[in-house]
Design goal:
- This is Catechol 2,3-dioxygenase-like lactoylglutathione lyase family enzyme.
- It comes from Caldalkalibacillus horti.
- InterPro entries: Fosfomycin_Res_Enzymes, Glyas_Bleomycin-R_OHBP_Dase, Glyas_Fos-R_dOase_dom, VOC_core.
- The strands form two sheets. The chain has a four-stranded mixed beta sheet, with helices on one face. A four-stranded mixed beta sheet has the order 5-8-7-6, with helices on one face.
- It is built from two helices and eight strands; from the N terminus they run βαββββαβββ.
- The protein has helices at about 15-25, 70-80, and strands spanning about 5-10, 25-30, 35-40, 45-50, 65, 90, 95-100, 105-110.
- With about 110 residues, the protein is α/β, with parallel strands linked by helices.
- Helix content is about 20%, strand content about 35%.
- It is globular, with a radius of gyration of 14 Å.
- It has one domain: 2,3-Dihydroxybiphenyl 1,2-Dioxygenase, domain 1, CATH 3.10.180.
- A hairpin with a 3-residue loop joins strand 7 (about 95-100) and strand 8.
Length: about 110
């Protein structure tokens, strides 16, 4: 069995969609105004975004994007930092990892 779909409720669908497209190479294949977007990765995973407020995910809730190397993690960390995101440097935990608060009200982990 393979998980192939996840829905996130976000405060700003457009900003969340643009963030995920820019930094994580997801492709939007459908929207309904500013309230819904369907994003796909190159492996068939579908991430849908739906508008809602207020957002109250548990403190430890996050989604993750595994990178092919620690260098890719470092590069993405620097891109996000240069673009104004508040990110700490990667650290060794269960992998080479860091977290970023995404537009729309959810947390993303980047790791290798």
């Amino acid at each position: 069995m393979k998980l192939n779909h996840l829905n996130l409720t976000v405060t700003d669908v457009t900003a969340a969609r643009e963030f995920l497209e820019k930094y994580f190479d997801l492709t939007c294949q459908g929207t309904r105004g500013n309230g819904f977007a369907a994003l796909f990765d190159d492996d068939g995973f579908v991430l849908t975004l739906m508008s809602g407020s207020p957002i109250q995910y548990p403190q430890t809730f996050h989604i993750g994007f595994v990178q092919e190397s620690e260098e890719h993690v470092n590069t993405l960390n620097q891109r996000l930092k240069q673009d104004g995101f508040d990110v700490e440097p990667p650290m060794r935990a269960h992998g080479w990892t860091f977290y970023v608060e995404a537009p729309g009200g959810f947390t993303v982990e980047v790791l290798a």
